[in-house]
Amino acid sequence: MDKSKRAAVLAGNWKMNKTPAQAAELLDAIIPAVKDADCTVICCTPFVDLSVAVEKCKGTNVKIGAQNCHFKESGAYTGEVAANMLTEMGVEYVIIGHSERRQYFGETDETVNLRTKAALAAGLKVIICVGEMLDERENGVFEDIVGRQTKIALLGIDKAELKNIIIAYEPVWAIGTGKTATAEQAGEACGYIRSVVAKLYDNEAAEGLTIQYGGSMNPGNAAELLAQKDVDGGLIGGASLKAPDFKALVEAASK
Ligand code: PEP
Q: Catalytic residue among 100, 107, 136, 170, which?
Protein backbone atom coordinates (compact mmCIF):
# COMPACT_ATOMS: atom_id res chain seq x y z
CA MET A 1 0.00 0.00 0.00
CA ASP A 2 1.08 3.48 -0.79
CA LYS A 3 2.12 5.33 2.37
CA SER A 4 -0.26 8.18 1.57
CA LYS A 5 -3.20 5.82 2.11
CA ARG A 6 -2.16 5.04 5.69
CA ALA A 7 -3.25 7.23 8.59
CA ALA A 8 -0.50 9.65 9.59
CA VAL A 9 -0.53 10.11 13.36
CA LEU A 10 1.40 12.62 15.44
CA ALA A 11 1.14 11.96 19.16
CA GLY A 12 2.60 13.89 22.05
CA ASN A 13 3.71 12.00 25.14
CA TRP A 14 3.71 14.54 27.93
CA LYS A 15 5.23 12.02 30.37
CA MET A 16 5.09 13.28 34.00
CA ASN A 17 4.80 16.93 33.05
CA LYS A 18 2.08 19.55 33.53
CA THR A 19 -0.39 19.99 36.34
CA PRO A 20 -4.07 20.24 35.31
CA ALA A 21 -3.84 24.04 35.19
CA GLN A 22 -0.65 23.88 33.11
CA ALA A 23 -2.22 21.26 30.85
CA ALA A 24 -5.15 23.59 30.17
CA GLU A 25 -2.73 26.37 29.31
CA LEU A 26 -0.70 24.19 26.95
CA LEU A 27 -3.84 22.90 25.21
CA ASP A 28 -5.05 26.48 24.80
CA ALA A 29 -1.91 27.05 22.75
CA ILE A 30 -1.92 23.69 20.92
CA ILE A 31 -5.58 23.58 19.84
CA PRO A 32 -5.54 26.66 17.55
CA ALA A 33 -2.01 25.84 16.37
CA VAL A 34 -2.97 22.43 14.98
CA LYS A 35 -6.53 23.07 13.84
CA ASP A 36 -5.67 22.65 10.15
CA ALA A 37 -3.72 19.43 10.61
CA ASP A 38 -4.00 16.84 7.90
CA CYS A 39 -3.02 14.05 10.25
CA THR A 40 -4.40 12.62 13.47
CA VAL A 41 -3.21 14.68 16.44
CA ILE A 42 -3.09 13.16 19.91
CA CYS A 43 -1.93 14.50 23.28
CA CYS A 44 -1.19 11.82 25.89
CA THR A 45 -1.31 13.51 29.25
CA PRO A 46 -0.79 12.40 32.85
CA PHE A 47 -3.89 10.73 34.33
CA VAL A 48 -4.75 13.73 36.50
CA ASP A 49 -4.89 16.02 33.44
CA LEU A 50 -7.18 13.79 31.37
CA SER A 51 -10.44 15.26 32.58
CA VAL A 52 -9.45 18.85 31.82
CA ALA A 53 -7.84 17.76 28.53
CA VAL A 54 -10.91 15.86 27.30
CA GLU A 55 -13.11 18.85 28.16
CA LYS A 56 -10.80 21.34 26.41
CA CYS A 57 -10.50 19.24 23.26
CA LYS A 58 -14.23 18.59 22.77
CA GLY A 59 -15.21 19.75 19.29
CA THR A 60 -11.58 20.09 18.18
CA ASN A 61 -9.32 17.81 16.11
CA VAL A 62 -7.08 17.03 19.11
CA LYS A 63 -7.59 13.56 20.56
CA ILE A 64 -6.65 12.69 24.10
CA GLY A 65 -4.68 9.68 25.27
CA ALA A 66 -3.39 8.24 28.53
CA GLN A 67 0.11 6.86 29.05
CA ASN A 68 -0.79 3.46 30.50
CA CYS A 69 -3.68 1.34 31.74
CA HIS A 70 -3.99 -1.83 33.75
CA PHE A 71 -5.06 -5.18 32.33
CA LYS A 72 -7.75 -5.94 34.92
CA GLU A 73 -11.15 -4.30 34.91
CA SER A 74 -11.09 -3.56 38.63
CA GLY A 75 -9.72 -4.85 41.89
CA ALA A 76 -6.89 -4.62 44.38
CA TYR A 77 -4.29 -2.90 42.18
CA THR A 78 -3.39 0.18 44.18
CA GLY A 79 -2.22 3.05 42.05
CA GLU A 80 -3.42 1.56 38.78
CA VAL A 81 -6.10 2.76 36.33
CA ALA A 82 -8.41 0.47 34.36
CA ALA A 83 -9.08 0.90 30.65
CA ASN A 84 -12.84 1.36 31.06
CA MET A 85 -12.19 4.21 33.52
CA LEU A 86 -10.42 5.99 30.67
CA THR A 87 -13.10 5.38 28.05
CA GLU A 88 -15.81 6.56 30.42
CA MET A 89 -13.92 9.87 30.68
CA GLY A 90 -13.81 10.25 26.90
CA VAL A 91 -10.18 9.24 26.49
CA GLU A 92 -9.60 7.66 23.06
CA TYR A 93 -5.98 6.50 23.04
CA VAL A 94 -3.47 4.91 25.39
CA ILE A 95 0.29 4.40 25.12
CA ILE A 96 1.32 0.91 26.19
CA GLY A 97 4.84 -0.40 26.78
CA HIS A 98 6.75 2.87 26.66
CA SER A 99 10.42 2.18 27.35
CA GLU A 100 10.25 4.21 30.55
CA ARG A 101 7.52 1.84 31.80
CA ARG A 102 9.68 -1.11 30.75
CA GLN A 103 12.85 0.34 32.35
CA TYR A 104 11.51 1.76 35.62
CA PHE A 105 8.21 0.00 36.32
CA GLY A 106 8.79 -3.63 35.44
CA GLU A 107 6.72 -3.65 32.25
CA THR A 108 7.39 -6.82 30.26
CA ASP A 109 6.41 -7.98 26.79
CA GLU A 110 3.76 -10.15 28.44
CA THR A 111 2.18 -7.31 30.42
CA VAL A 112 2.29 -5.13 27.32
CA ASN A 113 0.22 -7.80 25.59
CA LEU A 114 -2.24 -8.05 28.50
CA ARG A 115 -2.62 -4.28 28.76
CA THR A 116 -3.08 -3.95 25.00
CA LYS A 117 -5.84 -6.56 24.98
CA ALA A 118 -7.61 -4.93 27.94
CA ALA A 119 -7.38 -1.50 26.32
CA LEU A 120 -8.79 -2.78 23.01
CA ALA A 121 -11.60 -4.60 24.81
CA ALA A 122 -12.56 -1.34 26.52
CA GLY A 123 -12.65 0.49 23.17
CA LEU A 124 -9.35 2.37 23.37
CA LYS A 125 -6.94 2.76 20.50
CA VAL A 126 -3.46 1.66 21.50
CA ILE A 127 -0.01 3.00 20.70
CA ILE A 128 2.32 0.07 21.42
CA CYS A 129 5.96 1.09 21.93
CA VAL A 130 8.85 -1.13 20.92
CA GLY A 131 12.55 -0.39 20.65
CA GLU A 132 16.02 -1.66 21.42
CA MET A 133 18.64 -0.49 23.93
CA LEU A 134 21.94 0.96 22.71
CA ASP A 135 23.97 -2.21 23.40
CA GLU A 136 21.38 -4.27 21.53
CA ARG A 137 21.79 -2.05 18.50
CA GLU A 138 25.58 -2.08 18.81
CA ASN A 139 25.56 -5.87 19.06
CA GLY A 140 23.48 -6.12 15.91
CA VAL A 141 20.42 -7.70 17.54
CA PHE A 142 17.90 -4.88 17.22
CA GLU A 143 15.74 -6.91 14.86
CA ASP A 144 15.55 -9.79 17.36
CA ILE A 145 14.52 -7.45 20.16
CA VAL A 146 12.03 -5.37 18.22
CA GLY A 147 10.65 -8.47 16.47
CA ARG A 148 10.09 -10.27 19.77
CA GLN A 149 8.48 -7.21 21.38
CA THR A 150 6.14 -6.81 18.41
CA LYS A 151 5.19 -10.49 18.22
CA ILE A 152 4.45 -10.81 21.94
CA ALA A 153 2.56 -7.51 22.10
CA LEU A 154 0.26 -8.75 19.34
CA LEU A 155 -0.29 -12.29 20.67
CA GLY A 156 -3.97 -13.23 20.49
CA ILE A 157 -4.96 -10.02 18.71
CA ASP A 158 -7.09 -10.46 15.58
CA LYS A 159 -6.29 -8.83 12.27
CA ALA A 160 -9.55 -6.86 12.50
CA GLU A 161 -8.30 -5.21 15.69
CA LEU A 162 -5.15 -3.86 14.05
CA LYS A 163 -7.14 -0.83 12.89
CA ASN A 164 -7.10 0.25 16.54
CA ILE A 165 -3.37 -0.28 16.94
CA ILE A 166 -0.40 1.93 16.14
CA ILE A 167 3.14 0.71 16.69
CA ALA A 168 5.74 3.26 17.75
CA TYR A 169 9.34 2.34 17.06
CA GLU A 170 11.33 4.12 19.74
CA PRO A 171 15.00 3.19 20.06
CA VAL A 172 15.65 3.59 23.78
CA TRP A 173 18.99 5.30 23.13
CA ALA A 174 17.21 8.08 21.26
CA ILE A 175 14.51 8.90 23.82
CA GLY A 176 15.06 12.16 25.62
CA THR A 177 18.76 12.04 24.79
CA GLY A 178 18.87 14.43 21.86
CA LYS A 179 20.32 11.54 19.82
CA THR A 180 18.00 10.79 16.93
CA ALA A 181 18.10 7.66 14.83
CA THR A 182 19.14 8.54 11.33
CA ALA A 183 16.29 8.64 8.86
CA GLU A 184 17.67 5.42 7.35
CA GLN A 185 17.78 3.67 10.74
CA ALA A 186 14.23 4.77 11.54
CA GLY A 187 12.99 3.75 8.11
CA GLU A 188 14.74 0.39 8.26
CA ALA A 189 13.36 -0.43 11.72
CA CYS A 190 9.80 0.62 10.87
CA GLY A 191 10.05 -1.44 7.66
CA TYR A 192 11.27 -4.40 9.68
CA ILE A 193 8.32 -4.10 12.08
CA ARG A 194 5.99 -4.02 9.07
CA SER A 195 7.57 -7.21 7.75
CA VAL A 196 7.05 -8.89 11.14
CA VAL A 197 3.38 -7.88 11.09
CA ALA A 198 3.07 -9.20 7.52
CA LYS A 199 4.35 -12.59 8.68
CA LEU A 200 2.04 -12.62 11.70
CA TYR A 201 -1.05 -11.61 9.70
CA ASP A 202 -0.70 -10.80 6.00
CA ASN A 203 0.49 -8.06 3.66
CA GLU A 204 -2.80 -6.22 3.76
CA ALA A 205 -2.64 -6.00 7.57
CA ALA A 206 0.96 -4.85 7.51
CA GLU A 207 0.45 -2.29 4.77
CA GLY A 208 -2.51 -0.72 6.58
CA LEU A 209 -0.73 -0.38 9.93
CA THR A 210 0.44 3.03 11.11
CA ILE A 211 4.02 2.84 12.41
CA GLN A 212 5.50 5.86 14.14
CA TYR A 213 9.07 6.79 14.90
CA GLY A 214 9.85 8.29 18.32
CA GLY A 215 13.10 9.48 19.83
CA SER A 216 14.21 13.13 19.99
CA MET A 217 12.09 14.08 16.98
CA ASN A 218 12.04 17.85 16.59
CA PRO A 219 11.15 20.44 13.96
CA GLY A 220 14.69 20.25 12.57
CA ASN A 221 14.80 16.50 11.87
CA ALA A 222 11.12 15.63 11.42
CA ALA A 223 10.82 16.10 7.66
CA GLU A 224 13.61 13.64 6.88
CA LEU A 225 12.34 11.03 9.35
CA LEU A 226 8.73 11.37 8.19
CA ALA A 227 9.76 11.10 4.53
CA GLN A 228 10.76 7.47 5.05
CA LYS A 229 8.27 5.20 3.32
CA ASP A 230 7.52 3.13 6.43
CA VAL A 231 7.40 6.01 8.94
CA ASP A 232 3.79 7.16 9.27
CA GLY A 233 4.10 9.71 12.03
CA GLY A 234 5.80 10.35 15.32
CA LEU A 235 5.54 9.83 19.05
CA ILE A 236 6.98 12.98 20.53
CA GLY A 237 8.21 13.57 24.07
CA GLY A 238 10.06 16.80 24.80
CA ALA A 239 8.92 18.70 21.71
CA SER A 240 5.24 17.99 22.46
CA LEU A 241 5.44 20.29 25.49
CA LYS A 242 6.14 23.36 23.37
CA ALA A 243 3.18 24.43 21.24
CA PRO A 244 5.26 25.99 18.42
CA ASP A 245 7.42 22.84 18.10
CA PHE A 246 4.40 20.56 18.28
CA LYS A 247 2.69 22.64 15.58
CA ALA A 248 5.76 22.33 13.34
CA LEU A 249 5.79 18.55 13.83
CA VAL A 250 2.07 18.29 13.09
CA GLU A 251 2.66 20.27 9.89
CA ALA A 252 5.55 17.97 8.94
CA ALA A 253 3.36 14.90 9.48
CA SER A 254 0.40 16.36 7.55
CA LYS A 255 0.05 15.07 4.02
C1 PEP B 1 8.90 9.60 24.04
O2 PEP B 1 8.77 9.87 25.23
O3 PEP B 1 8.18 8.73 23.55
C4 PEP B 1 9.91 10.30 23.25
C5 PEP B 1 10.09 9.96 22.00
O6 PEP B 1 10.61 11.31 23.90
P7 PEP B 1 11.59 12.40 23.21
O8 PEP B 1 10.85 12.92 21.99
O9 PEP B 1 11.75 13.45 24.26
O10 PEP B 1 12.84 11.70 22.87
A: 170
